[in-house]
Amino acid sequence: MKIIVGIMKPDSGNIEVLGKDVVKDPTGVKGIVGFVPESPRLYEFLSGVEYLDFVADVHGLDSAAKRERITDFLKALDLEGKENELIHGYSQGMKQKLAIIAGLLHRPQILVMDEPLNSLDPRTARIVKDLIHKLRDDGVPTIFSTHVLEIADAICDRVVIMDNGRVVEEGSTGELKEKAGSPGSTLEEVFLKLTGSSDTREIVEALSR
Amino acid sequence: MSFGKAYKLAVVLTKSQLRGYQRRRLGARLFGDPRIILAADAAVFAVPALLGYGLLSRTLPIAMQNAVGQIEAESLAGMPTAMAFMLILFGILGEISQPIQSSSTDLINWLPISPGEYVAGSTMSLSYTYSFMLAFLIGATLGPAIVFNMLPTWVVAAVMTLLSLFMGACVVELLRALTNRISSSFYKRSGRSGIFVRLLLTILVLVFFQLLFSGNIIIYLLQGLMLTVRAAWFVPVVWPSLAVLSVSQGDILAISTFALLTLVFVIALFGFAVRARAVYWVPVPVSIRLTNQTYHPSTEAKNFLGLGVAESAIFRKDMRSLTRRREMARLLAIPFVLAVSLGLSLFPIRGAALPVGAGFYALIPVYVMPVAIFCAIMSMTSIGQEGSAVWNLYVAPITPRQLLKVKLVLPVLLGLAFSVAMLIFLGFVLNITLANFVILLSLSAVIVLGECALGLFFAAKFADFRDIIRSRFVSAWGSLFGTLISLILVGITASPILISIVIHGSIGNEYVVLSCAIGLIIFLVSWRLAEQQMAKLLREILV
Predict the structure, then answer these.
(1) Which of A1, A20, A27, A86 is the mutation pick for testing B, counting most B CBs within 10 A?
(2) ipTM of the predicted structure?
(3) For chain A, which terminus, N or C, has the lower number of CB atoms within 10 Å?
């Protein structure tokens, strides 16, 4: 994910994001990608709204667009009334909301999200899920990583299963279930089967002793 | 209270202090083991003890024996009180330097550890971490004590200094708990002004610390302490010193009384610290509201000093970082600390009644060096201070040149403001002529530019993004090389002016122009190097 966003060098090969090479034109790529990292570290000495204002300015949003986007997002993700408090005092969920807003503020053409639903309350998680679907309908794809396979099952059109840094299988959830030979099972069962780690009973037995 | 748990906690806290600084595996293995402190203690005890004894027992002229004996007696009596004060000051400095992130990730708050166990563990860890000061004090006084037959006084002084070490550690724990509650309540109510007051207080503490450790003041305090210590018998912090003073009079009752009182006071302080921790500690970070106004997009800084919108946004962020983060207050305090040092060093110049011209020439290095040091430190720390939040800059669509430009502007502005303020002050004190004022201003302007650009090269090359207590924001080697090369380049820049003074006894205009030209060349070369280094840094995220 860090290579796609242009903050890590690939060992080999190259990646183009909507026609822009991430190594040759990292600044151009960063302008069209929205990134939400896992456990985002924010500037804790800024207030929530100061942080979003900073991100919007760095992406070159004009005043009117800034005001509209920031106000709308703060309201939608329940941060209204808290925006003038220093981020230092925010809960992990509130920081995650800010990071998600920061990733979406500049209307990215592609979204890269690393475990974005971590620490979110059910309402916000639902909003983010629906937003991802809406963005997909508007032509903005999302690359999304998660260890919670129910979430992948509910959100993703296409799933890539990785184990130890290698791609094990990819396809739609239906295709993956078929490939695993268990069409009626959950994505979690498919994952465990495909990665050869399905026998968890012994471990549970040992732990509960 | 479980002493085993308190001991385990002390070991963990000491390790976290030691290992926070170690980036490499070898460094962590060598210096991350708490036993390294014992080794350091042994060294700082043995070396001054052997040196002191060796020197004084063989080479001390008879005429000096009385004076040295008097100093030894004063040192032994002042040692316990000095120990307590030093530990309190170091403790306060540690609190000030703590990054904002660490207070919200304090796992200790959620573990089943009682306030008593925490305070005991933390006190042990603090005392052990700073035990090198105790080792040095008792080591440095042992040699003279043997030579002047003051061994019994030394033994009592050593025990009292050890008790004072614990006394200081307990006071720090007490202060931690109290300031935690006071600052939490204060910030909650006062918001932005609370942050400003904290900044001001931090700077005052640092300036006070600087004052206390200047040679003149230490001598003055030691002499004052000896004169007033008996009169201040009711002040608990001087009880250990009174116990030591009583040894020379052979007053066993007074020794026992003051030693016992000291012990009781340390135990009472520990009790107060435990109580304060239990009652006042606020483990959850407090929410600070800056304003109640509705959001207005920032537009005012657009094109400020040639900065674009994105660069202005980073500039505003850095300004807020400087004034709101308590670990940044150290940097803001530098000009004040340097100005105080400069003020103290000016007294001999005035006292010697040098002519205006001679005073001015002596002033050049005294004026130029603080400006250079301030600029070098400000720019060397400008990248690493982003901490783990630096990913925000990595994912932003900004070029290395844009980032370098904005990171240059803030230290240059602060450096120029500092140099102008110092010049105005010195102009009044030393009656500097207008021509000399302009010479110094031109010299400082090119030095500010050169030092800031050079500092940025080291900032990008040796950035330290770890959010640790007393973070330097730049690696130890980077800091060392950076400061050294900065000072050498300042010397090279100022050398034509100094040569002119040596050869002609005055400053020729052509020499000023030459100095400025050298300064500008250093700036341009440093800028180019910094640009390359910044591009390299932004190629791959380090955290």
Answers:
(1) A86
(2) 0.86
(3) C
Q: Quote the pLDDT of residue B354.
A: 44
**The pLDDT of residue B400:** 93
Cα A142 off chain centre by: 8
Q: Tell me how many residue pairs between chain A and chain B have CB atoms under 8 A apart.
A: 117
Distance separating alpha carbons of residues B352 and B344, to the nearest angstrom: 14
Least Cα distance to B282 among B44, B529, B104, B437 occurs for: B104
CA distance A130 to chain B (A): 25
Question: Please, which pLDDT band fits residue B2 given cuts at 50, 70 and 90?
Answer: confident
Average pLDDT over residues B29-44: 82
Q: Which of A84, A94, A109 to mutate to test the interface with B (most CBs of B within 10 A)?
A: A84
Q: Is B392 on the interface with A (CB under 8 A)?
A: yes
CB < 8 Å to A37, chain B: 391
Could you give the angle at which helices B252-280 and B151-190 cross, rounded to 10 degrees?
20
pLDDT surpassing 50 at residue B104: no
Separation between Cα atoms, residue B289 and residue A94, nearest integer Å: 15
For an interface test with B, the pick among A4, A47, A63 (most B C-beta atoms closer than 10 Å) comes out as A47
Torsion angle (degrees, nearest 10) of CA A22, A27, A28, A29: 40
**Per-residue confidence at B222, pLDDT binned at 50, 70, 90?**
low
For residue B295, give the nearest of A28, A49, A64 by CB distance: A49
Q: Taking CA A179 as the corner, what is the angle to CA A176 and CA A181, rounded to the nearest 5 degrees? A: 115
The pLDDT value given to residue A133:
92
Give the contacts of A34 (CB within 8 A, at least 6 positions apart): A103, A104, A105, A106, A108, A110, A111, A112
Nearest to B285 among A8, A58, A89 (CB): A89
**Is residue B361 within 8 Å of residue B501, measured between CB atoms?**
yes
Against a cut of 0.80, is the pTM above it?
Answer: no
Q: What are phi and psi of B251, to 5 degrees?
A: -90, 90
Q: pLDDT, tens digit, for every residue of B174-201?
A: 887 777 666 666 666 666 777 777 777 7
Helix (H) or strand (E) holding B75: helix B62-96
- Do the chains contact at A58 and B291, CB–CB below 8 Å? no
In this predicted structure, the answer to whether residue B282 has a pLDDT above a threshold of 70 is no
Arithmetic mean of pLDDT, B452-460: 96
Q: Which residues of B touch A71 (CB under 8 A)?
A: 295
For B268, the 3-state DSSP assignment is helix
Architecture label for domain A36-145: 3-Layer(aba) Sandwich (3.40)
- A63 neighbourhood in chain B, CB within 8 Å: 297, 299
User: How much is the pLDDT for B225?
Assistant: 61
Q: Enumerate the residues of chain A whose CB falls inside 8 A of the CB of residue B538.
A: 26
Alpha-helix runs per DSSP H in B191-281: 192-212, 215-228, 239-248, 252-280
d(CA A60, CA A38): 25
Instruction: Show Cβ contacts of residue B404 under 8 Å, excluding neighbours closer than 6 positions.
Output: B456, B460, B527, B530, B531, B534
| B304: chain A residues, CB-CB within 8 Å | none
d(CA B292, CA B308): 29
Which residue in B395, B465, B537 has the most chain A C-beta atoms within 10 A of its own C-beta, making it the best mutation to test that interface? B395
Q: Find the residue in B nearest to A74 (Cα).
A: B295
Distance in angstroms (rounded) separating the CA atoms of residues A183 and A190: 9
Nearest CA in chain B to A3: B540
Residue segments in chain A with a per-residue pLDDT below the cut of 50:
none
pLDDT at position B381, please? 93
Residue B307 confidence class, pLDDT cut points 50, 70, 90: confident
Higher-scoring residue by pLDDT: B466, A160: A160
Q: Which of B255, B328, B358 is nearest to A45 (CA)?
A: B328
Ordered by start, the domain boundaries in chain A are 36-145, 149-209
